[in-house]
Design brief:
Helix content is 63%, strand content 11%. The protein is an alpha+beta fold and 364 residues long. Helix 6 runs antiparallel to helix 7, helix 8 runs parallel beside helix 11 and helix 9 packs across helix 12.
Length: 364
């Protein structure tokens, strides 16, 4: 493909001819590797939950001395505490440790940290959350995720068909699993903003999938197109007609998210990271997972509907368009009429004879 042809395809002046469905096994292998890595990360590394989920204390205060992370860790160890200490830009400290609620020595601990940082105890911002609060957030997040998945499946089944709903659900589970695996493998903190971002990801992935499915539904409603190409190639044509729209939409969404990820604050970065990973995976799954899964599910459905051939009896008169093992039954009448409308009459080179009306008999 030349640069001019690529530019025409990118700008929508020309429909590409990518063999997306034909190479679906490659996409499935790639996604399978990502899912296996994600499951390994989730099982063996686990998630780095914030104190909003696990409960604990978050301390933040300015640093006016040259105290190091080791110095602050030694102060925490003096009171039997362990945690995660960060010195940001050399002038502020963020500590994540066990809950201080109910501890009689919490005031003395804050005083020691303050004297080491060259500040007063009132300058330390303490955020203490109990474990029951984190458990309630986790329960509501899981409940919201299940409700969203069920609602999405019912909507697509009502708007299109159950096979498309099944393909979309597989793509959504694919997106959530890989996004969660990225968080587990990278060790990033899972915050409530992460949950909000994941729910937003599902909506964006659904939008992209619905655009593709709507084009598939439009093209497959043509008996002539189905008789000439078959269901799998019609889906492949629909993908080629919408692929650049999906790519451009995803790029427009990813660019502002990338700016938040690079230049935003800590809270915005947590949200932007989940959004960036999820949008990229969602755009990929809409093209390379949802549509190919539709052809597999629909092909198996039509294979079950096709009656088995009894020995000694002629095969039923149905025209079956089969491409890559996917069959879609089309009636002979529909296929014949569709072909007849497109087939030109043969030109034999002889002038057509005009029948003259019979001569009138004269009365005697």
């Amino acid at each position: 493909m030349t640069f001019r042809e690529f530019a025409d395809v990118y700008r929508g002046y020309r429909i590409p001819r990518f063999k997306l469905i034909e190479h679906r096994n490659w996409w499935f292998i790639f996604s399978g590797v990502l899912i296996v890595l994600s499951i390994v990360g989730i099982v063996f590394r686990g998630f780095n939950f914030s104190i909003d989920f696990e409960g604990g204390a978050q301390l933040s205060y300015p640093l006016h001395t040259g105290a190091t992370v080791q110095d602050i860790d030694s102060v925490l160890a003096k009171y039997g505490l362990t945690g995660e200490v960060q010195v940001v830009s050399g002038d502020s400290v963020a500590i994540r440790t066990q809950s201080l609620t109910g501890r009689s020595d919490s005031t003395k601990l804050l005083g020691d940290l303050a004297s080491e940082a060259g500040i007063t105890a009132q300058d330390i911002n303490v955020q203490d959350i109990g474990p029951s609060w984190g458990a309630e957030i986790s329960k509501k997040a899981l409940r919201g995720l299940i409700i969203v998945l069920i609602a999405i499946g019912l909507y697509i089944a009502f708007r299109f068909e159950w096979a498309m709903a099944a393909g979309a659900m597989i793509a959504l589970v694919h997106d959530v699993t890989i996004t969660a695996g990225v968080y587990a493998l990278t060790g990033r903190v899972v915050t409530p903003e992460t949950v909000i971002a994941i729910l937003t990801i599902l909506g964006f992935s659904l939008y992209d999938t619905v655009v593709i499915y709507d084009k598939v539904k439009e093209n497959t409603e043509s008996p002539a197109l189905l008789a000439r190409m078959g269901y799998t190639k019609v889906v492949d044509l629909s993908l080629n007609q919408t692929v650049m729209r999906s790519v451009n939409t995803s790029l427009v969404v990813l660019l502002p998210i990338l700016s938040l990820l690079l230049f935003g604050g800590d809270t915005l970065k947590d949200f932007a990271f989940a959004m960036f990973v999820g949008v990229a995976i969602g755009a990929y799954s809409s093209i390379f997972i949802a549509a190919p899964m539709l052809t597999i599910i629909r092909g198996r459905e039509m294979a079950r509907r096709t009656p088995a051939r009894v020995p000694g009896r002629p095969a039923p008169r149905t025209a079956v368009a089969t491409v890559d093992g996917t069959g879609v039954a089309v009636s002979d009448a529909a296929a014949t009429s569709a072909t007849a409308r497109q087939r030109p009459r043969p030109n034999t080179g002889r002038p057509r004879s005009k029948r003259r009306p019979p001569a009138k008999r004269k009365r005697r």
